[in-house]
Amino acid sequence: MRNSVFYIFVAFLLSTSLYAQGGKVVFERYCWGCHHQSAVAFGPPFTQIAQQRSAQEIKAMITDPASVSKVFGYKRNAMPKLNLKPDELEAITKYILSFKPKGSK
Predict the structure, then answer these.
(1) Taking the complete model, does pTM exceed 0.85, yes or no?
(2) What is the rounded average pLDDT for all residues in the chain?
(3) What superfamily does domain 2-97 belong to in CATH?
C-alpha cells in the first residue's frame, strides 16, 4: 500500500513538472514576444492573467481570441489565434496559472 501511494505521488510530481516544462517551452515558442511572466509587455503578464482568469477562460482566449475579447468587453483584440495541440494548450494553461499568487482563489 505504501509503495503504491509513493508511486502515485512520484507520478503526480513528474506530470506536474513535465507540464511546467512543457508550458515554458510553449511560452518560449508562442507567447514571449507579447507576454512576460511578471512584467507588463505588449500583453498582460501571466501574474495578472492567472489572478483574473480561469483555466477555461485562458484556453478560450488562446483558441478564439476575437470572440472572447468581445465577451470580456475589450474594444479591440491584438491576440492572435493559436492553433495549439491539446497537450500544448493544457501545458501553457497550467504554466500561466502557476503564476497565480499563493493563497488567492
Answers:
(1) no
(2) 83
(3) Cytochrome c-like domain (1.10.760.10)
